[in-house]
């Protein structure tokens, strides 16, 4: 839409929280815009720079990065102790933390952190034999980072196989081999899936 | 006739020639273009036999008829009929108008000798005539109306003619200029009737000129010019192309493309006035009903619903609603709305073609794939992620689900369905609530006629070389067979068919790909797409492209083909399973190495018939290829040929290199590439916990 019309929208500013909300007819598009604006406002408030001006994208705030890696470490430790539910909780917190990074920080970093955390959470789910959750987490991880993420690719393939969704598993692994053609684990999994399909067909 | 005045055509004997010439200049080309059969694919292809009539077949046929009427070229027809009438009238005028040619006295004719006669012959002939026609020798014969006067006159004429011909000068004048007095002045006539310039008519003529040059000429030139300015090369409005371009996004899914297509200005034209809002809420209500097999009956995703709801009321919102209703095969319970539903689909397909070219310009695999899938969906009236089985007659979403099995999460393609042994297949499909016996038969009959293209072999080659060298012009050759789903006793591929023999060296056309392998043989067209809901005829097209999956980009842009080089069916209508050859050319990468691509072969008219496979292009160092040539006695070019000289220039002193490893250039195995960087930034725990499942 070209900017040749001006529409006055009925908006309201909350006096205490300074959040903006619409008072007119509800519209999802408007609400989404306002939600983004309010998040930006909140993240600007939490900037601990002296003058309130957001810092440059790099270097990132080390505090949050440290927190995220601490959560991941904690998750890993729990996982090793076979406390899978704790591990899942830690990873979830870490994911939330990483996704909560303010908008001016580089999104590549978020992808990197989140894909690792999702991959780990998928593994924790798999250890609990929660195949469906594991598959979804692994897929999210792959969506964040396709290349060099063979473990997440493998985990979703495995989860699908465990749920005996063999055709999907086959397609998934075939796709993964486009990215990680030399990964031994994936090639093994592919064979395993082929066996399962043959068994199913017979 | 001896002055250089302009004479107007007072007797009206010349202007028919003028009018005839002018009219035929216009009429004949128009008639040829009218009568020449259209070369468009859609008009020359056969059809798939089907007696299936979808619901509202009358509306769909009505839309088809409307389109045909639009294509009928009524104007051209009228022009040519009018032209021929004028021509016929002019010919008639020419026949009936007496030609007034001024008669020139011709002494040869009078004497009755030929023009080539010599003086001697003329003299002897004159003497002969003197014996018979001299007044002294002839008798008056009143019964035959011969009087003394006429005999005398005749003799005088003969004598005059003889005198003229025996005079050297006059005779020469005759032979050279056709006139006894020598060269005559020209007379220039204007093939227009005189009344045009006669007193009082001048202003009408002037008015005519003003009308032609001042009004009609600017009008037609302007119409032509703005007509070409209004539409793009893909035959969509420029404004629509702008909208599509603005809405383009790399991450649009199949449903997202539908949303983008609704931005076409073409929809404003068909949904004008009060049509723009009529029934919008009803459509949306129907479209957003919960489905038995999918969350939303029309197959919209969360995102698509959001998109639909975000749009302002108006033609675009209605068009999007109609498109979804069409894709979901939703009954709208209203003749007008149903009609509009079938009307929007062909428009959307046209827009989608423009969208595809935009997506291709960005080169993003996902977007291009979505565009092609949308084409399939539009032609088959299927929502994104609907079961491909719904392409067959009588099969609805519920029935497709029933055939696929309740728990099935993936859709079965038509090929999969037809691959099930016949009795099991029937058992699955024919059941209460599913198909009846006859419906099943009809569905299977259609399935067996669909052109599924099965790739048998693919390889890369450079014409006349054994290796692909850097920066050479590579041909990607696909050998494929049309195997209709459910074909039994498919013969094995004849190995010799899979080879690609280079054309003869002198055959430039074949080498440059300008000519098909079988010269003179007409390309074979597959039958028109079986698309009972799509209100146009559509000839299926196949697109092949190579993609780089790591970057998600297209490496080699699509090559489209719609005809085959060998017949698909034999005389009795059975599939021949001939191996068809397709070639696409592109420049090889400038560096040697192994390049892995994913080949996509997509038919734009049928859902679920895509082929995706990995192909590896091995590019060898140029020096290696040369050494190979060195060893190869047969291909050694003679020193005195150009090729030989080129080679000796290129190879210089390196001809005695080490023995090369023999490798075939046309590898197609899927062993992957080693070009990918080893970026392993996994978290530490991943290293030790991979083996603890089971």
UniProtKB/TrEMBL annotation, chain A:
Signal peptide: none annotated. One of its GO terms (cellular component) is nucleus. One of its GO terms (molecular function) is Hsp90 protein binding. One of its GO terms (biological process) is protein folding. PANTHER family: TETRATRICOPEPTIDE REPEAT PROTEIN 4, TRANSLOCATION PROTEIN SEC72. This is Tetratricopeptide repeat domain-containing protein.
TrEMBL record, chain B:
Residues 628-641, 668-694 have a biased composition (Acidic residues). The keyword Transport applies. The chain crosses the membrane at residues 14-35, 74-95, 204-226. The keyword Endoplasmic reticulum applies. Residues 624-694 are annotated as: Disordered. PROSITE patterns: DNAJ_2. GO terms for cellular component: Sec62/Sec63 complex. This is J domain-containing protein. It comes from Lepidopterella palustris CBS 459.81. The lineage of its organism: Eukaryota, Fungi, Dikarya, Ascomycota, Pezizomycotina.
């Amino acid at each position: 839409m070209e900017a040749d019309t001006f529409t006055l929208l009925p908006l309201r500013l909350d006096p205490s929280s300074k959040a903006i909300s619409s008072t007119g007819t509800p519209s999802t598009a408007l609400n989404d815009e306002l939600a983004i604006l309010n998040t930006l406002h909140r993240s600007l408030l939490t900037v601990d720079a002296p003058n309130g001006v957001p810092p440059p994208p790099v270097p990132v705030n080390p505090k949050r990065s440290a927190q995220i890696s601490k959560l991941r470490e904690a998750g890993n430790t729990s996982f090793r102790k076979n406390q899978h539910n704790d591990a899942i909780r830690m990873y979830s917190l870490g994911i939330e933390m990483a996704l909560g990074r303010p908008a001016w920080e580089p999104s590549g970093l978020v992808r990197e952190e989140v894909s690792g955390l999702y991959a780990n959470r998928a593994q924790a789910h798999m250890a609990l034999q929660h195949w469906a959750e594991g598959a979804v987490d692994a897929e999210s991880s792959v969506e964040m980072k396709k290349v060099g993420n063979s473990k997440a690719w493998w985990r979703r393939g495995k989860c699908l196989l465990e749920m005996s969704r063999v055709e999907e598993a086959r397609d998934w692994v075939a796709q993964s081999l486009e990215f990680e053609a030399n990964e031994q684990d994936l090639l093994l999994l592919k064979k395993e899936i082929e066996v399962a399909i043959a068994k199913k067909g017979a | 006739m001896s002055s250089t005045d302009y004479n107007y055509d007072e007797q009206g004997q010349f202007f028919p020639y003028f009018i005839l010439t002018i009219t035929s200049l216009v009429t004949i080309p128009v008639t040829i273009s009218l009568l020449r059969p259209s070369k468009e694919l859609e008009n020359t292809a056969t059809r798939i036999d089907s007696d299936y009539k979808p619901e509202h077949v009358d509306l769909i046929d009505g839309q088809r008829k409307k389109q045909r009427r639009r294509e009928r070229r009524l104007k051209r027809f009228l022009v040519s009929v009018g032209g021929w009438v004028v021509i016929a009238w002019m010919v008639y005028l020419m026949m009936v108008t007496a030609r007034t040619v001024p008669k020139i006295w011709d002494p040869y004719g009078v004497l009755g000798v030929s023009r080539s006669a010599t003086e001697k012959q003329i003299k002897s002939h004159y003497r002969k005539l003197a014996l018979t026609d001299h007044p002294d020798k002839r008798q008056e014969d009143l019964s035959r109306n011969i009087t003394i006067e006429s005999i005398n006159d005749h003799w005088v004429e003969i004598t005059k003619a003889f005198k003229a011909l025996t005079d050297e000068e006059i005779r020469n004048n005759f032979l050279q200029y056709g006139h006894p007095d020598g060269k005559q002045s020209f007379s220039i006539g204007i093939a227009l009737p005189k009344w045009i310039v006669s007193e009082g008519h001048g202003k009408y003529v002037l008015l005519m000129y003003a009308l032609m040059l001042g009004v009609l000429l600017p009008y037609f030139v302007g119409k032509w010019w703005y007509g070409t300015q209004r539409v793009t090369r893909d035959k969509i409005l420029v404004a629509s192309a702008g909208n599509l371009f603005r809405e383009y996004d790399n991450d649009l899914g199949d449903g997202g493309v539908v949303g983008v297509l609704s931005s076409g200005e073409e929809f404003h034209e068909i949904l004008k006035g009060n049509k723009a809002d009529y029934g919008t809420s009803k459509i949306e209500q129907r479209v957003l009903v919960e489905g038995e097999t999918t969350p939303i009956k029309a197959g919209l995703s969360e995102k698509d619903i959001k998109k639909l709801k975000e749009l302002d009321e108006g033609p675009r919102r209605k068009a999007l609603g109609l498109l979804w209703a069409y894709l979901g095969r939703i009954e709208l319970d209203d003749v007008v709305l149903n009609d509009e539903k079938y009307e929007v689909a062909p428009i959307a397909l046209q827009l989608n073609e423009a969208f595809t070219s935009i997506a291709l310009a960005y080169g993003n695999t996902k977007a291009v794939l979505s565009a092609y899938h949308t084409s399939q969906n539009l032609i088959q009236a299927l929502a994104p992620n609907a079961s491909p089985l719904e392409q067959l007659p009588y099969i609805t979403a519920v029935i497709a689900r029933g055939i696929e099995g309740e728990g099935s999460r993936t859709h079965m393609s038509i090929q999969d369905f037809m691959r099930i042994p016949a009795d099991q297949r029937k058992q699955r499909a024919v059941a209460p609530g599913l198909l009846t016996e006859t419906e099943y038969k009809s569905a299977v009959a259609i399935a067996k006629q669909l052109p599924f293209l099965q790739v048998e072999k693919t390889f890369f080659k450079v014409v006349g070389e054994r290796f692909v060298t850097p920066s050479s012009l590579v041909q990607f050759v696909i050998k494929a067979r049309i195997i209709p789903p459910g074909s039994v006793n498919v013969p094995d591929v004849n190995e010799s068919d899979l080879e690609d023999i280079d054309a003869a060296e002198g055959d430039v056309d074949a080498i440059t790909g300008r000519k098909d392998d079988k010269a003179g043989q007409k390309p074979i067209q597959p039958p028109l797409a079986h698309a009972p809901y799509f209100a146009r005829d559509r000839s299926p097209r196949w697109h092949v492209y190579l993609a780089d999956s790591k970057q998600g980009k297209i490496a080699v842009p699509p090559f489209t083909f719609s005809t085959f080089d060998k017949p698909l069916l034999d005389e009795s209508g059975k599939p021949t399973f001939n191996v068809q050859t397709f070639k696409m050319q592109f420049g090889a990468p400038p560096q040697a190495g192994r390049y892995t691509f994913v080949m996509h072969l997509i038919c734009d008219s049928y859902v679920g018939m895509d082929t995706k496979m990995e192909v590896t292009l091995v590019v060898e160092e140029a020096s290696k290829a040369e050494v190979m040539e060195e060893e190869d006695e047969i291909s050694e070019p003679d020193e005195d040929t150009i090729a030989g000289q080129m080679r000796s220039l290129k190879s210089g002193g390196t001809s005695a290199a080490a023995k090369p490893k023999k490798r075939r250039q046309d590898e197609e195995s899927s062993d992957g590439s080693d070009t990918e960087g080893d970026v392993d930034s996994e978290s530490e725990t991943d290293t030790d916990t991979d083996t603890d499942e089971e």
